[in-house]
Each structure stands twice: as structure tokens, then as C-alpha cells.
Structure prediction request, 486 residues.
Amino acid sequence: MHTTVTARPRGLRGYYLGLASATSGGEALGVTLPLVAVLSLHGSVMDVAVLKTATEAPPLVTALWSGAVSDRWPRQHVLVGAQLFAAALSLVLAFTQASGLLTMPVLLAVTLLLGAVSDVSTTASIAYLPDLSVPAERVAATSRAQVVTSVSKAVGTYLSALLLAGGTTVWGPVLRGLGAVGAAAGYGRTSPLRSRFVSVPAVPGRRWEAMFEGVRYVLRTPVTREIVAANILVSAGTAALDVVAVVYWVSALHWSGGAVATLTGCGLLGGVLGAAVAGRLVRARGRWWGLGPSAVVAIVVIPLCQIPTVFAGPGEGWQMVLGALLAVRYAAAAVLATSARSMRQGLCPDHLRGREYAAGSWLARLPVIAVIVTVAELSQRWGPRPAMALALTVALGAGWTLLRSPTPHVIHQPAPGPHPRADATSPPAHPAPQSQTRSEQGVRDGTRQPAPFRRRRARPRPARGPADHGGPGRGGDRRNTAPTDR
Prediction:
């Protein structure tokens, strides 16, 4: 069984529409959930930390499975089904909140289910984008996807802030449900391209070895391994610091929910600008600048922008300072996402795209949860500022990890290398015939259309006698023997 890709992209508009709808709805719900726990259910720092953990925990169970599913089944069907299920869960959450039946256990249960569905959808979405674009245009398509994601996050945040100004948090689940319906409609309009020239092996059977093949690939590929480790550190540090900072802003500094949402929206505007210029920033310039150096610079800038958060005080001046630094932080995150994803897509074989991303997500969840819970517990014992300083130290370790790796030397998008382990779980490679190599080169680069297949003219073969191979009956040429001997 083989799946194929083509030279001419179609369906990217539907993909971007679905990505925008799902991202805006998910961002609106993400901004609303901590405020629901604090304002509606009067939760503590530990309650918010547990809620954040419920958002991060589902990939521990579903990540590897979602990677295998996105590599075996049609990714378009997986995306549409996941978004429809997320719409149903969001409507259930909105109904329980509007009717006054919402409790912390119910909120945690729905958050767990939404996190699992979001993990499946995100894995399939990232693995689906290369199916809609040729290799020569994948970096540009990834950059445009980052722009769409950043704009959608800003729209969802500002829309939720506008609705939170009315004093109610029920609109967050409603926006999530409407965004999921729009995402299902957008992904349903896409169409993966197919061609007879490029063949990608599918996953052979349902086996546990195939699910863990992505983990083995990540742990044994040099550049990919360091990128995943750095993402774990920066994600854990920033997530833990954000949890403590939100509670500190609302409880100690007495900032309103609308102010917190507006502050996050200011950062997302910076993310939009960063994603818009990320394609140019990561472009190779000489021997010292490209994908790897841009990733190193971006991952160092992200925690540096969070240093003033530890020393923030009351007043609108601090809100303006933190808003400006959040803009720089989100811009650096957009550049990091574009460069890191381009390097990982270039290194990863086509038949491992879903499982490679799922393995990175699965490896990151447990450390992120551990850091969030630890920092939240230390915040209750030591206070918010020492806990935020500890989270900031963890995030600063990401830059050191990339600096000690081969990543700074990666200038251009790398090409897939040999698989780290070629065993029974790895599909065999299917190289193209020699007669199709020249026509495939233009198809893969996107510079020409597939030429019709031309059969090679057979070359005349010299006649061989019985003495060449030991005579008839021993593998020799039988054309010179008598009819009775045949």
C-alpha cells in the first residue's frame, strides 16, 4: 500500500481556512479557561496548575497513537472527525457553564477530552501540510501557516477579551465550538495531490513497534534530537512561568480579566509580525546565517523577554512594558517555529512525518507537566517571584542546548538521510527506476509538469553458445540446441 504526492499544489486555501478557524477558537478557549477557574469557580494557584496540566497531559496517552493514525489513515478524514468531536465537547462545556452545573471535576474532564482531540488534530494537520505542497515550496508554505496561526491567535484573543469585558466567560466554549465547525468545513475542502512519479510507503500494519518508531527516530537523529530537547526546556519554563504570572496578576496586582486578555493579545500581534517576516529571517545568507542560527537566536530571546515579568508591579506602565516584551517574545517564537519545523521536515522521511512530530510532542509532555506542578507548589511555599525565577532558569537552558549541538551549522534545509534503524518496522525504500529519474527531478522541484513515460529501447544482446555457461541443462543458452533437447 502506497500513498503518493504530486507536483502541483491544491487545497491550500481550505487548509489555511481550517487552520485559522481551529486556532482562533482554541485560543479563545485557552484564554478563558484559567479565568473560569479563578473568577467563576474561585480556584487557587494549584487549581489553575491542575487545569493547565489537564491541557498538557492527554498527549502522554494519545501522541504516539495519533502519529500512527495520521501516517496510516487519510489525514483529511482524521482532521474533519476530530474537529466535529471538539465542537460537540465545546457545546457541552458551554451548556454546563450557562446552566450553573459547571464544577471543577467537570471542567477538568472536558479539558482532558479537548486536549486529546486537539493533539490528534494538530499532529494530522502538521503532517498534512507537506501533502499539499511540493518540496521546493514547503518552507514558504510553513511560513504562511505560521502567519495564519499567529493572526488567528490574535483574533481569538482579542475577541475573547472583548466578550470578557461584558463580565461573562461562557463565550469561550462557544467560540471554540464555532471554530471547530469552521475548521471541519475548511479541511473538508482540501484535496491531497497524487502522482505516479513519487511514491511514499505507508505504515505496514498496526503494531506497537510502528508507533514507537518515531521515538527511536527522534532519539537517534542528531539535529532533531537537540531541537526536541530545546523545545522541551523552553516550553516547560514558559508554561510554568505563565501559570504563576496569571494568578499573580489577577490576585496580587488586581488586574482584570480583560486586561490580562488584552496583554496576551499585544503579544500575539508581535507573533503576527514575526511570522510575516520569518520566511525572510530564516533564509540562508552566506555561510553564517540560515535555519540553524536563526533558531538559536530565537530560542535565546524568548526567555530573555520574560525577565521583567518576575519584577512586575501594579500600574499601567508595567502593563505596557510587559505587552511590548510579549510582542518580541511571540515574534521570536514564530521565527523559532518556522526554522525548527523546516529543519525537522527536511530531515524526516515522508512516511514518518506524523510519528516524528507525535514523538516530539510525547517526549515533551511529562517534563512540562512536572515543571508546571513543581513551580506551582514552590509558588505557594516561597512566593510567586522565586518560583517564576526558577521557571525562567529552566527556559534559559534551551539556548545552551542548541548552542552545544550541530544546529548552528545548519544553513539550508537538510535532506532526509538514512533511517537510524532499518528493521522490520521500517517500510522498505522504493527508489525510482533509472528511466524516470530525470522526469522526476523537475516534478519534485516544482519547475515542470510530469512528462509522459517513455519506454527504453531494448538493446540487442549478443548470442551465447553452450560453452559460455556449461551447456544446456546447466543454466546455459538453449537457443542453439535441438528441439528434441528442449
Summary: The first strand starts at residue 2 and ends at 5. The chain has one domain: 10-195+205-409. The chain has 17 helices and two strands.
